[in-house]
Each structure stands twice: as C-alpha cells, then as structure tokens.
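>> received
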Amino acid sequence: MPYASRVVVIVSKTDWTNVMTAIGTVAVAIAAVGIALFTEWRLGRRASNERSYANSKLENERQYAEARLENERQRARDREQLAEAYAVQVTATVGKYGLLGSFADQDTAAECPVVIVVNNGHYTITGIQAWFRAADVDLVSPYRPRGSNVMSPERAQHYSAFDTLPVMLKDGLIAAGQADSHDYSLTPADAGVRFIGTVTRREFLVASYPIVWWTDRWGTRWQHMTGEVSKIDDDTKQFPD
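>> returned
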C-alpha cells in the first residue's frame, strides 16, 4: 500500500546573540574603514595645507629677497650716479672780448662770462647745455630760458681728445670739434667744452654764476649750479629760484 507523504517542519529558536555579534562586527568594520578614510583625508588635507603654507612662505621670502636686492642695486646705482655727476667739472671764469672774439665795443672794462665743462667720469655725458645768471637785469639773450638775468652763451667750443693722440696719428691733421649747437656731448677722453657768454661790463659779472645741464648714461638729467649738483625732470623748462 502506498506510504503517506509527511513533511516535518523544524522550527528552531533565533540566536540573537550571534545575530547581534555579526551586526556589531560589520558595524565595527565599517567604522574602522570610515575612520581610516577620514584619517587619510585629514592627513592629505593637512599635507596640502602645509605645502600651500610652505609655498606661500617661500614665495614671500623670494619676493622679499628680490625687493631687498633691487633696493641694494638701486642704492648702489644712486651712489654711482651721484659720484659720476660730481665728476663733471664745471669751472666758471671770464675772458676778454678780444681773446674770445665776441661782439663788443672797445670798452676795456667789458668781459665775457665763460664756463668750462670737463667730463672726469667714466661714461659719456650728453645734452650738455649752459646758461649764465647775472646780476644785470638788462641783459638780453634770444635763448634765455627764464628772466632777463639769465642768458644763453653766444657760442661754445668743443675740444676733443685729439691733443692726447700719438703724434704719428695726428701728424698733418687738425682737430675737428662738434658742430656749433646748444646740445653737446663729452666722452671721458675729450678735453672739454667751453661756453662763452655775452660781453658785458665787469661789475655786472661779480655776482654771476653758470648753470649747466647734462644727461648721464642712465638717462637722468642733472643740473650743476653754485657748486651743487641735483637731478631735474626731463620736462624742466625753468631754473629754480
């Protein structure tokens, strides 16, 4: 006879202790991974911040060093410029009209103001100009920059280094000066340039003095007046009082 089919269902009691242990294990593992990732992120961020700080500090130190070096260079350049400016020798004197060939009547009391400029520096100077400031307010000059007591020279004489050349090189030759103008240049080897003013009576020249301008190798404009040198602006058109 056929056997009856029988299904036996076995119901066991849940072991919550093992379940909680498993969940706790998984949670601990997840927490450990999270802590590791967070720690790595913090370390990476700290390293990035430290690198940024180090780079910023290095850049600041580099800029400071460059600025300090540039300041030292500028101070050295200023000292050299001032030394070169004072190496330009400006000598004021007077000359007789007969000797210099200026226009005048036969008044033996008449003289010409003269200024001699010599470049004793190491570099060429350019744009040399000269004027005479005299006590006489009636002096007239077509090129005076300001006021009737400032007059331009009637003419100038440039003396090159020709006389210092060996005899064999200059034998049979004559010195050729720069063309007559109101803008001269002098190399350190040149003898100098002489500016000759308008003939006037001697008493008017007692308180007179020359004013000389030139440009150095750095493009700075300089003025020599009453024994002092000073920088002037390129667009300066008038003399200081």
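>> Residues 109 and 203 are 9 Å apart (CA to CA).
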